Structure to design on (750 residues):
């Protein structure tokens, strides 16, 4: 499904060049949780009401007039109430808002986990909302990656087995998937920990395994739901940095749900939701130029 | 304590019909099977001829042997049934861990919370035991139709004496309470959760060495034992030692079984070409005892049923008494296997379904990440298929080894062997079907809206 050059199924692993004009060399992280935290970005500048970003003409994912209603008529709750949102390729987007504002529902609808009550979700020209569950499941496996709050690693599997699992589910041979997975784990600072169980890893290390699992399939979009919610601030910041940079290096877009402004600040764009609608959108001023440069460099 | 007891019902909230009923089903099955097996064994004992009537008929002369067979089957099945009761208690307790932690958080001491937990298990055991007695009474009339080659049993033969029923209920409830208490001793009830040992499981090769040594000792004894012991005790000493060896080999299956599961599962997990096999094998390697427990009862039954069925195939009946004996052994063997299969199926169904309920968030996460529902089913099937396969190999191999060593021959009637193998496959199919009972739940949890 992914038509980007980065979506090659060859077992290149993350250390291979992502494109001939990759914006930055792949970064390797230390195994400790004391990575230098990025400084919180300057306060994002509001750019007005929520409009799809005009920076990226060919979005990888587009939500149009998304409505999601729970419950019977009369007592129905509108989790989404006419949301329009574009996700640009290789962009990073934070979805913020108070509990119950619809941010997790929006993530689930964009990822094809939930069918919206109304509206369309276009991914490479295909409306996810019109696909049957089995097709959406396969598409999530091949084109999307997921990082959950608590990792959701299978405790019985080793770190490397957790990473290869979705790849094997997608039909990739164990040998190929293992080579890719080891490469990703090494890159994320987990050398020597490939055969450890999740219970033998720290929270930050386990979340790095989740990131490796999400990115091993070369997804076009990574969805993260409160990925640092279960981590302390220092470890969380380190994991966030890894997540954003890994997505950027591999050309994947990042959609991250969070209620933490410091977490959201690491993304280039932020949309703030309220009552099922996008109330505001922000773009990090210091990120705009860098992102525009990167967009120009990524060949699609 | 009174205050805590009065708030316990609020805190030990119900989780929904199926989750609450699973331990009750297990207690009911344990009670029904125990009552049926004990009732059946008592029926055989009741047919033992009196002194004056001894050996006047073929049936009377055969009864002492059949009583021994019935007692062996009971000794085999009752511990497994009671073990199911213990498993149900642990299951009930495990499913309450969050509630117990909450009770600690709101001020209950470890002792108070532990007492409430044991009482909760006891109540479920009592309800299950009463339901199990009902099932026993309902099923027993059908058992009067079984052909043991002797005068058919009546309903009153197969029911236990009335006073045995309250004793059985009390015994099972006490066992459940005891199991719960022992399980609680292995965990730390803290306000922040229930901590338990989560070390990576390792199994010692000593298990295999001990079992192999018993087998080698048995074979050597069968070769030279007769010569060494001669006619000591009229030959009874040699027979007694032989029986002890056989009992040790059969009992040793439970020691070596988890080791075989562990070693096989680890090897399969490392090379599994499919994700389902990899996940299933890893789960088994993480808890090989639980994997073996699902099939241990059926393995024992298979060994005994194998003895009885194969012995019945080893010669032609030359008189009515032998015909009677072969019929009784064949029916008894298959009945033992059937009951063991039901026991194993209930145990597997309850444990696996409970595991699905407990893993609901993880199933959902796997489906979100691209695992199709069918792939989730295959992983669960792989988890039970590995011990089932090992169990069939170990049981058939053990039965054949012992029989060929003792009797110096192999089964001669291929039709009986085919019938036995068909029964084996049927028994294992029942166990695998029990795994599938939880399949609708897997689909529901995987596709549940967040």
């Amino acid at each position: 499904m992914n038509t980007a050059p980065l979506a090659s199924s060859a077992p290149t692993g993350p250390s291979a060049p992502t494109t001939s004009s990759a914006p930055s060399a792949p970064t390797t992280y230390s195994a400790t949780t004391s990575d230098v935290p990025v400084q919180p970005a300057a306060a994002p500048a509001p750019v007005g009401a929520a409009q799809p970003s005009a920076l990226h003409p060919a979005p990888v994912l587009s939500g149009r007039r998304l409505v999601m209603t729970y419950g019977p008529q009369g007592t129905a709750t509108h989790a989404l109430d006419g949301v329009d949102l574009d996700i640009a390729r290789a962009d990073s987007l934070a979805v913020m808002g108070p509990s119950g504002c619809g941010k997790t529902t929006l993530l689930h609808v964009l990822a094809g986990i939930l069918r919206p009550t109304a509206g369309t979700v276009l991914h490479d020209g295909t409306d996810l909302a019109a696909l049957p569950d089995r097709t959406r499941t396969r598409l999530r496996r091949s084109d999307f990656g997921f990082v959950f709050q608590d990792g959701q690693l299978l405790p019985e599997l080793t770190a490397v087995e957790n990473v290869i699992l979705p790849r094997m589910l997608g039909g990739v041979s164990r040998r190929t998937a293992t080579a890719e997975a080891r490469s990703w784990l090494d890159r994320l600072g987990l050398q020597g920990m490939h055969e450890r169980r999740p219970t033998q890893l720290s929270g930050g290390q386990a979340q790095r395994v989740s990131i490796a699992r999400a990115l091993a399939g070369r997804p076009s979009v990574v969805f993260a739901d409160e990925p640092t919610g279960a981590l302390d601030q220092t470890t969380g910041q380190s994991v966030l940095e890894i997540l954003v940079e890994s997505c950027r290096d591999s050309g994947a877009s990042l959609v991250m749900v969070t209620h933490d402004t410091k977490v959201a600040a690491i993304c280039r764009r932020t949309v703030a939701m309220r009552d099922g609608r996008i109330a505001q959108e922000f773009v990090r001023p210091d990120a705009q130029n860098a992102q525009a440069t990167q967009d120009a460099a990524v060949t699609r | 304590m009174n205050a805590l007891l009065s708030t316990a019902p609020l805190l030990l909230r119900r989780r929904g019909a199926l989750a609450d009923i699973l331990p009750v089903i297990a207690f009911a099955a344990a009670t029904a099977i125990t009552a049926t097996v004990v009732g059946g064994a008592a029926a055989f004992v009741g047919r033992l001829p009196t002194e004056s009537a001894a050996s006047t008929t073929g049936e009377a002369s055969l009864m002492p042997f059949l009583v021994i067979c019935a007692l062996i089957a009971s000794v085999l099945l009752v511990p497994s049934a009671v073990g199911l009761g213990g498993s149900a208690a642990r299951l009930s307790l495990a499913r309450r861990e969050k509630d117990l932690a909450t009770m600690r958080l709101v001020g209950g001491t470890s002792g108070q919370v532990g007492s409430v937990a044991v009482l909760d298990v006891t109540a479920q055991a009592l309800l299950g035991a009463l339901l199990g007695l009902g099932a026993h009474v309902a099923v027993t009339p059908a058992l009067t139709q079984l052909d043991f080659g002797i005068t058919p049993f009546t309903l009153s033969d197969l029911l236990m004496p009335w006073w045995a029923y309250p004793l059985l209920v009390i015994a099972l409830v006490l066992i459940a309470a005891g199991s719960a208490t022992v399980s609680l001793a292995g965990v730390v009830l803290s306000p922040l959760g229930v901590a338990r040992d989560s070390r990576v499981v390792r199994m010692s090769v000593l298990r295999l060495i001990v079992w192999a040594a018993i087998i080698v000792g048995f074979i050597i004894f069968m070769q030279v034992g007769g010569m060494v012991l001669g006619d000591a005790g009229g030959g009874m000493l040699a027979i007694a030692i032989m029986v002890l060896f056989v009992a040790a080999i059969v009992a040793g299956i439970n020691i070596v079984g988890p080791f075989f599961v562990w070693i096989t599962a680890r090897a399969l997990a490392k090379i599994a070409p499919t994700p389902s096999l990899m996940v299933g094998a890893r789960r088994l390697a993480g808890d090989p005892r639980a994997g073996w427990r699902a099939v241990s009862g059926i393995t024992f039954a298979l060994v005994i049923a194998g003895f009885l069925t194969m012995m019945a195939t080893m010669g032609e009946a030359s008189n009515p008494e032998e015909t009677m004996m072969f019929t009784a052994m064949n029916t008894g063997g298959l009945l033992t296997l059937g009951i063991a299969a039901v026991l194993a199926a209930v145990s597997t169904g309850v444990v696996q379904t409970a595991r699905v309920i407990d893993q609901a968030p993880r199933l959902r996460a796997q489906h979100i990440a691209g695992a199709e529902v069918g792939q989730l089913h295959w992983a669960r099937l792989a988890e039970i298929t590995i011990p089932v396969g090992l169990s069939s190999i170990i049981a058939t191999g053990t039965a054949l080894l012992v029989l060929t060593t003792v009797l110096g021959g192999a089964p001669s009637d291929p039709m009986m062997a085919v019938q036995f193998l068909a029964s084996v496959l049927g028994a294992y199919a029942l166990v695998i079907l029990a795994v599938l009972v939880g399949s609708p739940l897997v689909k529901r949890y995987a596709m549940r809206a967040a």
Observations:
- Chain B is about 80% helix and 0% strand.
- Chain B has two domains: 1-198, 215-450.
- Strands of chain B lie at 188-190, 193-195.
- Chain B touches chain A through 28 residues (CB under 8 Å).
